[in-house]
Amino acid sequence: MRPAITKRYLASHTRRRLQIGAGPNELEGWLNADFNPRSPASIYLDATQPFPLPSNSFDLIFSEHMIEHVPFDQGLRMLRECYRVLKPGGTIRLATPNMDRIASLATTDPTPAQMRYVEWAIRTHVPHVLPATQADNTYRPTYVINNFFWDFGHYFVYDPSTLGAALRAAGFTEVTSFEPGHSDINDCIGIESHASLIGEEFNRFETMVLQASKR
Predict the structure, then answer these.
(1) Strand 58-64 relative to strand 43-44: parallel, antiparallel, unpaired?
(2) Each residue of 146-178: pLDDT tens digit?
(3) Phi, psi of 50 (to 5 degrees)
(4) What does the domain layout of the chain look like in residue ranges?
């Protein structure tokens, strides 16, 4: 957990911000936490277990493309811990794949955006099926949908309604949806980094962002 880092952060910051699942996207002025910390400045945190952090201690929590990597019950446990460690009036911001968008690919009448996403995903993630798709030049999202679940360690992919319900079950209120990079909180504007991996267009297609408040 690196308790000295946590203690020093809490003692030196009046506005406290926690990032869960930071990976390589360590944010300046935040307490960056990850199951596999990438640098000595980040702390170890297993988000499926009780957080070794004091209650009512953070103003803001951010997590990007992390909650879908744990089963639903563990994700709900994580949200309850987030609620506990947030100060009253604090905010949580989650960016995660949108099941509605992924499931919408299974259509016989795809939009240009869906066609571009499927073509990109096949070439990027399942290029071994290219001969099958090129043989008759047919839109085949089945490869992409299957790969989305078994190739990235995803355990539970949310739609907006289900993630909103989970946030409310954990105690949060005022659940609001945003596009990646957009927020009514200055600290959260442009905060997501997933687009640097897959590009702005495809990140906007597959990623949803929800913010919620602690009463």
Answers:
(1) unpaired
(2) 999 988 999 999 999 999 999 999 999 999 999
(3) -55, 135
(4) 3-97+158-213, 101-150
CA distance 47 to 45: 6
Given this model, what pLDDT does residue 137 score?
75
Name the residue with tokens 């992390």: 66
Domain 3-97+158-213 architecture: 3-Layer(aba) Sandwich (3.40)
Longest Cα pair distance anywhere in the chain, in angstroms? 63
66's CB contacts (< 8 A; 6+ apart) are 20, 21, 47, 96
Phi/psi zone of residue 73: left (φ > 0), alpha (ψ -120 to 50 degrees), beta? alpha
Strand order in the sheet with 31-34: 43-44, 31-34, 17-20, 58-64, 86-97, 207-213, 173-178
Number of residues in the chain: 215
